[in-house]
Write a structure and sequence with these properties.
The chain has 131 residues and is mainly alpha-helical. It has seven helices and two strands; from the N terminus they run ααααββααα. A hairpin with a 2-residue loop joins β1 and β2. The structure holds heme C.
């Protein structure tokens, strides 16, 4: 009788421990996907002028949320992470204004002010950096 009681206690203890442990583990992994890594905004929900510029001109290639996209086997880079993070604002400006094959140049479609706004949008809103 005593033995079976302590067995129950041990089983109950492990059961509770197991549940607690699973909750702990799942909370560690929760949102480790793109959303968690991003310190930036969600473009689809943003009502700013810059977000609409992005949606109209850039989303087709760089993806709705700027995580990059594969088009015809070619990888279009993310604007949130990677190379784009290491570019200076001047380099970002030049990339958008002049393009770089296969990315088209935007200097005839967007004003200087629009391109500057997009540069700030990438740096601040997408990459979450303040510089
Ligand atoms: C037709 C598809 C296309 C469109 C539209 C486009 N891009 Fe790109 N973009 C690319 C590709 C492809 C590259 C990679 C070029 C390379 O290999 O250097 C790129 C690179 C970039 C880079 C450099 C990223 C890096 O990793 O160094 C920036 C910044 C950028 N694009 C911003 C924009 C912005 C802002 C717009 C909208 C105004 C835009 N792009 C529109 C295809 C596109």
């Amino acid at each position: 009788m005593r033995r079976s009681l302590s067995k129950k206690v041990v089983i109950t203890f492990f059961f509770i421990f197991f549940i607690g442990f699973s909750i702990f583990v799942s909370s560690c992994f929760e949102g480790t996907g793109k959303a968690r890594r991003s310190s930036g905004i969600k473009i689809a929900e943003s009502k700013t002028y810059e977000a609409s510029l992005y949606r109209q001109n850039c989303a087709v290639c760089h993806g709705a949320e700027a995580y990059g996209k594969e088009i015809n086997g070619q990888q279009v880079p993310s604007l949130r992470f990677g190379n784009a993070e290491n570019k200076t604002e001047q380099e970002l400006y030049e990339q958008i204004a002049n393009g770089k094959h296969p990315m088209p140049s935007f200097k005839d479609q967007l004003t200087d002010e629009d391109i500057r706004r997009l540069v700030r949008f990438i740096r601040r809103d997408l990459q979450g950096k303040e510089d």
